[in-house]
Each structure stands twice: as structure tokens, then as C-alpha cells.
Input
Amino acid sequence: MQGKIVLVTGAAMGIGLACAETFARAGATVVMADIAKPDEQAVRLVEAGHNAVAYHCDVADAKAVREMIAWTVKTYGRLDAALNNAGIQTPQHPMAEITDEELERTLAVDLKGVWHCMKHEIEQMLKQEDGGAIVNTSSQGGLTAFPGQAAYIACKHAVIGLTRTAAMDYAAKGIRINAVCPGCIRTPMADELFRKNPSLERDLVREIPADRMGRPEEIADAVLWLCGPAASFVHGHALLVDGGFTIH
Output
């Protein structure tokens, strides 16, 4: 990724932060976008000798996303790769108990946020002779289901469908679009779920053949590969990184 310009949304913590760090260490200039502007995280990377900049953006806001892509191109001249990772987790309720407000907020970030980012990333990459690479963060829940998370799971399924369809639209135009599907990863979002349901971690690990939670860095390695030249013939793939959970 030496010299490449890469955008990562949801870059303030967890998987997004690990991916931004991995891209930067691989030589990319990384625009670290998040609704909580990750200034300190970007500064740490710069102090370590890498190229990174923090950017404030709510991906649920279509105008803000358009401005973010425009700023990136104005500042760096192009956009080579993007990880559309920003997402939220809805409170756990049976489907009929999820409020309209909870549903709309989940759709706004986890699905429409990916849509907004892809739209403007693709528009820019179409202007570039060598296209670009896009990875969308889905989930192992994009291929399975979990009780009490109907809104979240619906969005993650939709992200895979969106990824595959857009990949077909733009594969011949030099733009590779794929998804990564993390399993049970030790992130702040996961820790919050475990605090609310102390037995959940034990129950989840019991179902993972690898017998452990994953690390954000393990997702970052997969994303780096999907965006790099070694994956040059990979289009529309939903890559599971889940310790074997979905083997069942």
C-alpha cells in the first residue's frame, strides 16, 4: 500500500482503528474518519512515522460523506482504497420490541452509511485510470443470525447483497468491491455487550472452533489483503474471519 490514499470510517476504535493502523504501517496515507474525530489516534500514528489524518464525519449524513470524499481528493489528489466500517449495535430486543427509532438509526448508520460512502467512493474511482478497492464491513451475522438483533442483522445481510451487486456493476471498470465478515472480535462494542450480558462471551466462545475471541488486528490483515494487489481477481466476496463459527 506504499503511497496509496486510503479512507477508513469508524476509525476511532476497535476494528476500524486496527485497520487504519495496519494500512498506515503498510505505507498508505490514511484518512481516519469517525463521528468521534480520532485526533489522538491519528497523532500516535504520525508520531510513529506514518501518514494519517483525523476527519470528523457522520456517515448517516449523505452531505457530510460527499464532503469527506471531496476533501480527501482535494487534499491528496485521489482515493485508492476505502474501508466502510462505521457501524452501531442496537439494544438487544426480540424483533417486535425494537422501536421505530432504533430501527431507523441502525439503518441510517449500518446500511445507508455504507451506501453513502460507496456511492461517492465509486464516483471518484471511476475518474481514476487504475480504479480502486472498496471493502465493506458486514459480520458473521451477515450470513447467520442472532436473537435480539433483528435490525443489526438485517443491515449486515443487506451490506453483503449491496457489495455483491455493486461488484458486478463495476468489476469491469477497475473497481474491486468486497466485504469482510468479522466473527466474535474483542472490541469496545463487544465488551459493552458482555457487560450487559456476562454469560454471552462464554456462550459465544463455546461455539467457536478456534476456542477464542478474535483480535481486531486479524480483521485488519484480511482487509489489507482484500485491498492489495494479491487480491486483484477477488470481486464481490464476503470474507469470513470468524474462527470457524459458521462451519456449524
